[in-house]
Design brief:
Layout (H helix, E strand, L loop, with lengths): L5 E6 L24 H6 L9 E6 L10 H17 L3 E7 L5 H11 L6 E4 L12 H13 L8 E5 L2 E4 L4 E2 L8 E2 L7 E3 L4 E3 L24 E5 L7 H9 L3 E6 L7 H12 L7 E6 L10 H4 L3 E3 L5 H12 L5 H10 L1
Parallel strand pairs: 1-2, 1-3, 3-4, 4-5, 11-12, 12-13, 13-14
Antiparallel strand pairs: 5-6, 6-9, 7-8, 9-10
């Protein structure tokens, strides 16, 4: 008898574990009411594809996800993969609102090349035509698939495989919400097999330099939204609080208004120390933010094509290692 690949399912809550008062309550429901073991019990077909172990990490709606939970999750995944070479991969069930952020943090900090697959649902478990069971089955199949090895952390929903670096939630309620913009998704999960057609070219997981061992607290990095006629109060408040880094979620190709530039000049000229590392990202969803002389002169670094929320995560990890702008720029060019 052929031995099935071993897959761990780590459950964290979210809509996939949510329940409503009736089958037609698709938006009015309570997230994170079911346990991971209950989610698996609803998908008995999954046991045809893998020897499954289930563990409840937390049970929270994804807006309540924290950096501390991210760290615990990454360390637990590393421990599972280190302790048992027979584990093919790990699945993390998660709410969709911040799923992309958790996925990218794990993409940068899990130190193994075996697949970690995040999965969620747009409809609660009690809904008519709930999407969670099939998503979970496909995530388990992907985690068990040899061809998923070395691809980094993945997001599997709606029969599609997306890479953690580029994927984002793009719709409030539609089941096809996770998209990777112009770069596209990596593959499909169909009845016959798991198929990959693309892979990330940036450093991740086993090739990452970010080691959580000995990191008990992370630098504080915040996001400032830039928009027409926007107030400078959030920027000044964060600088006053002494945050370690600020990512501008800017319009266009990482542009800043004249007022924002003047505020940054005042920050750079002040005697306050230490000053936060400043970076420019774009709110457009596609395209790169590149070096520009006027911003470079102020020490505002570009974030390449990372979304503001993912640029925040990478800067947070970078600052845990270095405050050298040249090294931070290198990190953003490699990850």
């Amino acid at each position: 008898m052929t031995r099935l690949p071993r897959v761990w399912v780590l459950s964290t809550g979210g809509t996939i574990a949510g329940t409503g008062a009736s089958s037609t309550h698709l938006s009015e429901y309570k997230a994170s009411t079911l346990l991971g073991s209950e989610l698996l019990a609803a998908v008995p077909e999954a046991h045809r594809f893998a020897d499954i172990r289930v563990e409840q990490v937390v049970n929270v709606a994804s807006p309540n996800m924290t950096v501390e939970v991210w760290r615990s999750l990454a360390l637990r995944i590393d421990a599972i993969l280190r302790a048992d070479p027979d584990v093919a991969g790990v699945v993390v069930t998660h709410g969709t609102s911040t799923l992309e952020e958790t996925a990218y943090f794990l993409h940068l900090t899990v130190r193994h090349d075996r697949p970690v697959v995040l999965v969620g649902a747009q409809r609660p478990a009690t809904a008519i035509s709930a999407d969670g069971p099939l998503n979970l089955l496909n995530a388990i199949r992907t985690a068990a698939a040899p061809q998923a090895r070395g691809k980094g952390v993945l997001v599997v929903m709606n029969d599609e495989i997306n890479g953690a670096r580029d994927v984002t939630k793009s719709s409030t309620y539609r089941v096809e919400t996770f998209r990777s913009g112009e770069l596209g998704f990596l593959g499909y999960v169909d009845d016959d097999r798991v198929s990959f057609y693309n892979a990330s070219t940036r450093r991740h997981t086993a090739d990452s330099e970010f080691d959580l061992a000995g990191v008990d607290a992370f630098p504080r990095v915040e996001i400032v939204a830039s928009y027409a006629g926007g107030s400078l109060a959030p920027l000044h408040a964060l600088v006053h609080e002494g945050v370690d880094g600020i990512v501008f979620a800017s319009p266009g190709a990482g542009s800043l208004s004249d007022a924002e530039v003047a505020a940054v000049k005042a920050i750079v000229a002040s005697d306050a120390s230490p000053r936060p590392v400043l970076m420019r990202s774009t709110r457009t969803g596609n395209g790169r933010v590149t070096n520009r002389a006027a911003f470079d002169a102020l020490g505002i670094l570009p974030t390449d094509n990372l979304s503001p929320q993912k640029a925040r995560i990478l800067l947070m990890l970078a600052l845990a290692r270095t405050s050298d702008p040249a090294q931070i720029a290198r990190i953003f060019s490699e990850y």
